Amino acid sequence: MKEAIEQIKAELAALKAKTAAEAEEARVKYLGKNGKVTKLFDDFRSIAPEMKREFGQKLNELKKAATAKIEQLKEEVSSSGEVEASGNDLSMPGDRLPLGSRHPVSIVRQQIVDIFRKFGYDVAEGPEIEDDFHVFEALNFPPNHPARDMQDTFFVSAGHENPLLLRTHTSSIQVRTMLSQKPPIRVICPGRVFRNEAISARAHCIFHQVEGLYVDKGVTFADLKQAILLFAREMFGPDANIRMRPSYFPFTEPSSEVDVSCNICHGEGCNICKGSGWLEILGCGMVDPNVLKACGIDPNVYSGFAFGMGIERIAMLKWQVNDLRHYFENDIRFLKEFETSVEV
Ligand code: PHE
Ligand 1, from 206, 211, 314: best to mutate by most atoms within 8 Å of Cβ? Predict the structure, then answer.
């Protein structure tokens, strides 16, 4: 037995493997069911009891050494031999895999959210399927307002007092926020909205908005103007200017539409701004006291402003996209313009 142990030791020391298969073969040869080392353990049962101690120890050492050697062989082939044998050249450059890109609407949405987050606004969200109360009634829409007509709004269930409908603006989230929180309130509400419009280069039945709401004691129109100006400069650059034109929304009084100075011609007049030097970006105003009342806020104590903008419109101005439909058609040639790629 002594010789057998020495013999195997010598064999193990000289053992080599080029591939994983060879390393496995070696394992079977020595440590497998009928392997040489395993066999010695069988023989060990029949040797004289007084020799068991000495050989037992030796055998255990041998098994340990064989296991370690084969582990070592396996490691070597997995890190080098096999790759070389496979003919793969590890120094070749990697394949460029195009990463799916973020949609331009998502990019701009995130930019708008980031800007207002910096100003201390929280993000609020709400359901796309809304009811008449949150989309119209609480927002001071008179009962016969045209927006409540089937022509303009997609109804989910009509014919009763508070019908379900697809929200036509994210102002409904402002109503939900005012009903559930006490002032001071400062939120922006991004989301998808739906209007029953014919699809064209300038209109779509689905688009995205970000609306904002600020309610506290002593909020004035000057605060609104300042917030919009700061936003415009963050979004369109430090030279951007705004101008406010009187407008009308049922839920704000006074109301205004805001133009930003054209960032393409810088006021000189181009075909994007149609020669005027200004681009319309959003609607806004002071929250109508009736809206505050409908949402359980005392208009004698609190005042607030609200604003709302279309994300697609801001993205169109930013990247000079001239047709709204591009955003919804998923044409790979259009989406690729916003693509990034990484090497893997
Ligand atoms: N909700 C208005 C719209 O969808 C935008 C708006 C929001 C205007 C808040 C004024 C104040 O057109």
Answer: 211
pTM comes to 0.71
* Per-residue pLDDT tens over the stretch 68-101: 988 888 888 776 656 666 778 888 888 887 777 7
Given a contact cutoff of 8 angstroms between Cβ atoms, the answer to whether 307 and 212 are in contact is: yes
136 close to 284: Cβ distance less than 8 angstroms: no
Tokens 């009308």 locate to 248
Distance 285 CA to ligand 1 centre (A): 8
| Domain chopping of the chain, boundaries | 2-80, 104-341
CB atoms within 10 A of CB 142: 10
Task: Select 104-341's CATH number: 3.40.50.880, 2.40.400.10, 1.20.1080.10, 3.30.930.10.
Answer: 3.30.930.10
Atom number of ligand 1 nearest to Cα 169: 4
Instruction: Take atom 2 of ligand 1 and give the residue whose Cα is closest.
Output: 308
Task: Specify burial of residue 241 (Cβ count, 10 A radius: 0-12, 13-18, 19+).
Answer: middle
The tens digit of pLDDT for each residue in 116-131 reads 999 999 999 999 999 9
Helix (H, G, I), strand (E, B) or coil at 258: strand
> Measuring CA to CA, which residue among 71, 86, 168 is closest to residue 128?
168
User: C-alpha angle with apex 291: 214 to 284, nearest 5 degrees?
Assistant: 50
